Amino acid sequence: MAQVVKSLRDRYRYAIVVFKELVKTDFQLRYQGSFLGILWSVLKPLMLFAVMYVVFVRFLKFSDGTPTFPISLLCGTCLWSFFSESTSMGMMSIVNRGDLLRKIHFPKYIIVASTTMGSMISLGINLLVVIVFGFFAHAQFTWRVLLVPFSILQLYAIGLGLALVLATLYVYFRDVAHIWEVVMQALFYATPIIYPISMVSERGYGWAADLLMLNPVAQTIMDIRHNLLAPQYTPTVWTMIQNPFIRLIPYALSVFILWLGVHVFRKRQSAFAEVL
Amino acid sequence: MNQEVEQSPVVLSVQHVAKSFRLPTEQASGLKQAFLNWARGIKGYTEQQVLRDITFDVHQGDFFGIVGRNGSGKSTLLKIISQIYVPEHGSVQVNGKLVPFIELGVGFNPELTGRENVYLNGALLGFSREEIDGMYDDIVAFAELEEFMDQKLKNYSSGMQVRLAFSVAIKAQGDILVLDEVLAVGDEAFQRKCDNFFSEVKKDPTKTVILVTHSMDSVKKYCNKAILIKDGEIIESGDKDTVADRYTLENVAVKPSDAKQPSDDENDEVEKYPAGLNERVPFLKVWPISEQLSDGEQPFRFEVEYEFHEECPFYLAISLIDRKRGGVVCDSGSVRMFKTGRQRVRFNIPVASFNNSDFKLLVSLRVDGATPEGPTDMVAFTNEENSCSFAIRNAKNKDYALISERVLDFVQE
């Protein structure tokens, strides 16, 4: 028994050592050679936000009329960047690190986990920016802020689960990259980021709005906006859907995605070194 | 001493390991191809058996050599030992911390500094920051790169990179080191350091080294046991000298599987005769009579077998080729033959005046040219597989020059 515990701890220790070092390296290399360096982590979402704000809020008048819509938009952009970055970079990670896999034995999920964790660090920085801007943009910080970490954990679980599935598929079929790009574009428009969800429901598509909210990514983003910025103005799956079982669908889906990712990855990982 | 080693515990046990690879016959890294293959019911790959039933044990304190020609499966075996590949059958048991070096500097990134790379490389080998802190100074000192550790790796010369990588490798405090052909790196001074290191490790009864190499000198110098792998099987194991000599022989001898069997060849008409032969001379081959691995004391005896039916004067010409240094060592000129039909003729050549080398005997069959006085015309010659190879290995011989100083030496006037 003691032997089992010891060997488990040893295995775990190695994973942590590699994980830390890979996250550190990835992050160090991310803005390698760029003039502003880590500042880009802050600047990029702000600039993206500026573009969206001008196009969608100023010109196209997408707004739910609440004072927190701009900061909600910024927050949504940051969360979406995390989701899109973690899945697409996670997908490539195994293939990109193929040289490692062919030459050394170590827990392969570490590669995917460290890549998504890199995106997570960016998200952390971005959320700090969101909070700072929130003070100037009518954000209502309440006790509900304490719930935000749970939603972020959920978003990470979705991102990691999808990244694990995609990374496995990408080892065998490089087409996945192109397919995923399109899927991400579709998902982006299916998620209430640049438009308020009320815009859908007010036009008589209440069922469509409900359906969109069942997407776990949309649900998480709305939860975070609700809890972090505007409990009063942001609808969530809790306020929109009455049926308690249907409400739980996005949460259950998140767990399922993570399980699926881990399952698929574990089943296939031993062959990666030979296929790559 | 040997007894002690025998009784030490087994640290690596490889039992009946077999492995085959799927070699894609068609480009199949796309969905479309995968679907088409599936729809047409083709597998899209062929199986290649790389290892079949490999079994051996390595004891603590061993310096274990794995040798074999290119493509014999030794790298695959190494990857299975290092748990990078999963064996199809059989099992690998490791007791202790195994540090594999399939390649030096795994994970080295040119954009990071030398210091950061040491930590990254170390982490991948399973060492935490604190552990590397402990060995960092040793690593840097061994690599002799003190002034360069805060430079980016891309500014290192390739020799410096290899030195750094090698230092991490050998200073890493593993119980079992797995090294794949890494001895030939660095300048001479660095080589000497490595040499010392290996000699030290060899004495240390707690460290085990598994070394894959082509250098028989290293095997004879460091190893206490070795195995020779050929076509995925162990064909010689145990004593390092036997293995090293057998390997030398394997390299000079032609694999029997290479010899063409025209009967089961598909292109029967086209390739009826191997290169060098034709319908006038359907057979010409040199057979060794002496051992192909010779100590050089006795003349090397061999037999030329030919088949020739024309009633005209014909000749055999024999050349001795030095495979190691290149060039023709000696040549018989045209030797008149008289018997037609399928015949065997015996020759020998004294080799006592040569140092260690690998030789090849080439024979050509010739007839008179346009004018009988002029040079003869070649009708047939022995190709690689019909020629005869042999090697001279003797402890009293040197390796550098072809002619031994016993026979020919400079005289100071």
TrEMBL record, chain A:
<keyword id="KW-1003">Cell membrane</keyword>
<feature type="transmembrane region" description="Helical">
    <location>
        <begin position="34"/>
        <end position="56"/>
    </location>
</feature>
<comment type="similarity">
    <text>Belongs to the ABC-2 integral membrane protein family.</text>
</comment>
<keyword id="KW-0813">Transport</keyword>
<keyword id="KW-0997">Cell inner membrane</keyword>
<keyword id="KW-1133">Transmembrane helix</keyword>
<keyword id="KW-0472">Membrane</keyword>
<feature type="transmembrane region" description="Helical">
    <location>
        <begin position="109"/>
        <end position="136"/>
    </location>
</feature>
<dbReference type="GO" id="GO:0005886">
    <property type="term" value="C:plasma membrane"/>
</dbReference>
<protein>
    <recommendedName>
        <fullName>Transport permease protein</fullName>
    </recommendedName>
</protein>
<feature type="transmembrane region" description="Helical">
    <location>
        <begin position="148"/>
        <end position="172"/>
    </location>
</feature>
<feature type="transmembrane region" description="Helical">
    <location>
        <begin position="68"/>
        <end position="88"/>
    </location>
</feature>
<keyword id="KW-0812">Transmembrane</keyword>
<feature type="transmembrane region" description="Helical">
    <location>
        <begin position="245"/>
        <end position="265"/>
    </location>
</feature>
<dbReference type="GO" id="GO:0140359">
    <property type="term" value="F:ABC-type transporter activity"/>
</dbReference>
<dbReference type="InterPro" id="IPR013525">
    <property type="entry name" value="ABC2_TM"/>
</dbReference>
<feature type="transmembrane region" description="Helical">
    <location>
        <begin position="179"/>
        <end position="197"/>
    </location>
</feature>
<dbReference type="InterPro" id="IPR047817">
    <property type="entry name" value="ABC2_TM_bact-type"/>
</dbReference>
<dbReference type="Pfam" id="PF01061">
    <property type="entry name" value="ABC2_membrane"/>
</dbReference>
<feature type="domain" description="ABC transmembrane type-2">
    <location>
        <begin position="36"/>
        <end position="268"/>
    </location>
</feature>
<dbReference type="GO" id="GO:0015920">
    <property type="term" value="P:lipopolysaccharide transport"/>
</dbReference>
